[in-house]
Fold this protein.
Amino acid sequence: MCGIVGYIGQNDTKEVLLNGLEKLEYRGYDSAGIATLNEEGISLTKVKGRIAALRERVDSSIQATMGIGHTRWATHGVPSITNAHPHQSASGRFTLVHNGVIENYKDLKKEYLQDVSFVSDTDTEVVVQLIDKLYQKHQDTVEAFRETMRLLKGSYAIGLIDVEDHETLYVSKNKSPLLVGLGDGFNLVASDAMATLKETDQYLEIFDKEIVLVNRNFVEVQTLEGSVVERKAYTAEIDASDTEKGTYAHYMLKEIDEQPIVMRNIIKNYQNENNELKLDADIRSAMKAADRIYIIAAGTSYHAGLVGKELIEKLANIPVEVHVASEFSYNTPLLSEKPLFVFISQSGETADSRAVLVKIKEMGHPALTITNVPGSTLSREADHTLHLYAGPEIAVASTKAYTAQIAVLAILAVDTANVKGIQLDFDPLQELAIVATAMETLTGQKEEIEQLARDYFETTRNAFFIGRSGDYNVSLEAALKLKEISYIQAEGFAGGELKHGTIALIEEGTPVIALATQENVNYSIRSNVQEVVARGANAMIISMKGLEEDDDSFVVPHVNELLTPLVSVIPMQLLAYYAALHRGCDVDKPRNLAKSVTVE
Ligand code: M6R
């Protein structure tokens, strides 16, 4: 969702801002803008649409040593130039970018800003007008900024420029991500480190409700009460080259192809010199102590959680509940006596998951986050973190993070079984190595899968994915992948549920994709396929070596039955990719979607 970049230094500000915004494009946005400050004042450029259009529109002759940039994912007000950020106060003194949702913006408008005329429909404009109003009272920008931040309710990451102050970027955050990047003679602000890796690998965390004054030579962190906070910088461990597309047409295809490497990275990082599993002792104790595990996640990460439930229950013998984060906060189930909460999140910034984390921490429960971004909010605020080692995932459609999440959950499950003294005939590191090889075979079969995508999805308006047992979990993920990037209405169903309603939707030619990788339900899922074929469906069976039949459309290599989602999902990801490609969709940046969903 919205992305922020800020810069104060010596160099060409507009290039740093535009480059940074390009790196944040993956988060999802519909409009963008930058504001730069020099002796002549503020120069503001905004567009509806892509950064490429912003780049064309920005005056190339502008030289400035500070500025702020923004990509907006519309919440309050349609995507338009007027609603795009940066926003300015009516006097023109203050210019501001914001990520998040100001919940009390109507109240603030009524109480403080009745005499101000607004130009946009955004909640953000209220913030900048309020800062200006409070400046008139305090005659001091820091005081006006501080008082405004005290009055805001909701989520925000904010960057502010005062046209009269060429030495300071004013920054604050609550619930929305924001970092300060540290340079030599310059400093930066960014929603995530990926935006500014070209400039620095040194970062300073900002905690909720802190105010940060960013000068080109120093950074001062303050509490809302005004006390100065000392904080050490950390090094971002992201290789800038990992965020490049290389020769690939799309990040999604690159990330699908990276999955075998990710499996091997996971094996390497969770193995000690004796080839045994390596996990922190405190994670082991937390897992051992839990009488029930509550997995909290959203979207694809939720689907990985469903596979994780099966792994943990079958291998470690601990009951597991999997909850959609946005539901859990408002409809909290009865909890066991010793719950352990496991948050699964590629980005580590999903606002719905964070809301649950805040709630369960208040209740005093322990939390473990499984994430691809160790310094992220969900990682920092949980007691423990397991890293996915998947490398940056840029495409909005999550692929390698899903398989990494399942692999790490398998390791966690087996490790817990070991700690509990449960004897298993399952070596996860060996099994994951077999999976990595199987993944390589599958990513080498793109032409076959592309042809299936042409045959089944070129003109259809809907599609159904069915499976039983572990395959049902993958069918949910397959449907999400297809719908989010190709806009084909797709649903995943348990094969056995078809007759209880869904079969009414089957018409002549309806694509039904059945997964058949589970021995105990192989016969039943094939019967379900016969039932839909008898009603005109255009069915495809994707099975596993050893369970295949002659007319199956595609057969994935054999892997341990508990890990089949790791391989059966790959043809599903590729089907979605080629369906979207052939339908002319923007594969990496699907409409209306954001990579990092940082508002509830
Ligand atoms: O960063 P997270 O894993 O917490 O994100 C959760 C979902 O927003 C994400 O998985 C989303 O469903 C993806 N677009 C799916 O491809």
In short: The first strand starts at residue 3 and ends at 8. The two ends are 11 Å apart (CA to CA). Residues 247-441 form a domain with the Rossmann fold fold (CATH 3.40.50.10490). The chain has a mean pLDDT of 94.
